[in-house]
Amino acid sequence: MAVPGIKEEELALIKSALLLGFLQKVFQRDARILEQSGLLKSPEAYVELIRNGERRAALVLSEIHGNLRERNIAIERIHQDENGIQAEYRCRGYRGKMRILWAGLQQEVSSRMRAYLNGTAQAAGSSRRERMEKGNLKAHLLP
Predict the structure, then answer these.
(1) What is the pTM of this model?
(2) Helix or strand or coil: residue 136?
(3) What total number of domains does the chain contain?
């Protein structure tokens, strides 16, 4: 559902918040699997690397949430299904919905995961928006 007067930059913030929330869950799951698998003799180094990536993602997500609050935007509900992630959000009193399909999400999560694990993730801003526009992350506004 299109929200009257919502800007592309604001939609990009919502998409980034959804992406980073999903990425945090992936990092948490992967670290837990490594810790519990018993397959590695020294999983600590790998788990620490993943936890550091998770912390970097959390820092950027916190900044994005601050930007959303400044713009009077709130993500009210997130739902996952076989097609992707759907979010219901409120923007300056209007309600909207956005869906991100798994194909685009997985590609972008993989790219961002590498950046956060390498410690090269950039803070919120135009550079992130440019990367999103170049990537295959497509959000669909729902009626």
Answers:
(1) 0.80
(2) coil
(3) 1
